[in-house]
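*Target chain*
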Amino acid sequence: MYLSSSAQRLLCCPFIFFADMKCTTNNSNSSFFSGSSVRITFVFSLFMLVACLQAWAQDSSAHRQHHATIADTVKKDQPPIDSTLRIVNVNPYFTLHVDSVLQYAFQINKPPANYYWYLKKAPVGIRLDRSSGNLFFKAEKSFFKSGKLRYDEPYQIQFGVQSLLDASEKVDTSCTIVFYSTEIVPSRLKPTIGATFTLEEGDSIKFKIQCDEGSFPTEQITIFTNIPISGYRSVQRCGDQFEWTVPYDFIKDNDTARQRTLFLSFVGADKFFNRDTAEVRLIIRPGLDYPSQNKVYAR
């Protein structure tokens, strides 16, 4: 039991005082201990004892409260134990300029010597160091000129980290990388036919619309003509084929001109509505309608 020095002195005071009074009386052979004097001395001693006990109780309570406060402070200062494997600095989104280098070191909340990193899915050229978790990529223009990568298109990188001691302890996550360039190269449309072609009524024509992809790929193609036509196969994407058969009544009997010129304009646009137009000119001349003439001759 804890007692402060002041409480110990107070607790002993009445007994020392009472013993001193008794010894003094016995040595002087007086009658001080008799009658009312004894009662007064006893009451005074009892009063002092109660006062000392109260002081001791208060001092003991304050001491216990002080130790409890110290214990609570020690518990709050101790950090919680982090036992779950986590990647503490995952960056969910990377933006990288062409001809630049990406280097980013992922970190975990445990000793890295007992863990290794791995890639599950990534675009061409992405590397992840299995020991340090360092992500590396050099955005060379050759990746984009060859069509392996495209600008302004999000690519997902799936990777993870696993314990070398416990195969069940692992974490899988992902991030996104987008490439961009300040040098905008427009996409171009290239028909697989010459700029000018001559046809007769009843003839058919077929050709494809190819694309030279620039910074942003062509997403849609629209056809415009100077003369309304029908029965043709439309082109909407790169690589689609245009097909059309010239009807026999394309040149009317009352037309003064012996030929008509049809302009086919193919307009391609990317996601930012940057446009490129390829034009094909078809010169159409009157043609003999063999099926109709055969019917007339058969009659």
Remarks:
- The radius of gyration is 50 Å.
